[in-house]
Amino acid sequence: MKSDIQIINCHTHIFNRAIVPDRFLPAIVQPIANLLQGDNTANGISHFFSLIGKKETALLIKRYNQFLKIGDLKSQLEIFKLLQQFYPVGTKFCVLTMDMEFMKAGKVKQNFKSQLQELATIKRDPAYKDLILPFIFIHPERIGLFSLVRKYIEEEQFTGLKMYPPLGYYPFDERLNQVFAYAEAYGIPITSHCARGGVFYQGAITSEMRKHPITGKVYPYNKNKFFTDIYTDPDNYEYLFAKYPNLKVNLAHFGGFDEWEKYLQNTIDNTGELNWYEKVKAVLINHKNAFSDISYTLFEKDLIPLLNITLQDPLIKDRVLFGTDYYMVEQQASEKEFSINLRASIGEDNYRLIAEQNPKRFLNLNY
Q1: Residue 286 neighbours by CB distance under 10 Å
Q2: Whether 129 and 54 share a structural domain
Q3: Between 61 and 262, whose confidence is greater?
Q4: Tens digit of pLDDT for each residue in 77-91?
Q5: In this structure, are 85 and 63 located in the same domain?
Q6: Three-state DSSP class for 114?
Q7: Each residue of 118-128: pLDDT tens digit?
Q8: What domain range is 173 assigned to?
Q9: Does the pLDDT value for residue 168 go beyond 90?
């Protein structure tokens, strides 16, 4: 079935579990996760942890179960074909790669370059070349990164770049300057994780890391999963745009569903700072090339009214992007259910805006 809207999902993943480090899960959770044998067991264990107040552990188990269900498929192509089944014929997908080799969580079975090459092979196939829009992950510790970026952008027709600051770097990291200058010069879009939680750097936190390189603020957090929020904070993009004002950046997840929920309760959090929903809005208002996708965040149906209100703001409505974070959203609802519910709830005009018109601007698509 075709759609009268040229749907572009700006945030998906099709990597398999081979790229995930062997110590990805905390030591206390790993033995339990190894016992998972299907949804019923996973949901039962997850529910138990929720009941005893360990909601983060419960979410980790659900997430790991998704890697077992979908991530154990043999190839990225198999996962991509599965994703396609949820959408009308002709839907395009931004496929975001991940480079977890520097997060200090152990070894991976498939290295990053192999992941890119496998994706390039899919991109060359006439059946998929116009439907799959690959993004290259950029990590400042990756040796030869700039050459890698140029190779896959110029020779393999990859579409954009992907950042994930919680893996241990700021989005304005100077080691990425050559890549940023290149992206700005050629209008290459960048999608960067901008929500609390998710995957995070698991190495030692040094005194040097605790001090913000621009503000000088010293952070006291001791647990990595909280400390790495300093890299992800939307305020950091102000420093990036100050140096590269024409860089096109998508602040993925629009701050995260938990920050949207906080906003509905109170604009100011317990630290006296604006919550991240408000911070992302400010970045969009201040910078014409800033975008933000709603992937994963809008699986919470109660937040859709706030999206409708957000899309009434003339200063930012043209830079909100449709995305789902497949296959992470599958933890909460099926990809198809999520997409259809969203479309029905915001109406055809708004859906066309975020799923076709705005993505075309972000991705430089003229058709």
Answers
A1: 12
A2: no
A3: 262
A4: 999 998 999 899 999
A5: no
A6: helix
A7: 999 999 999 99
A8: 8-14+73-363
A9: yes
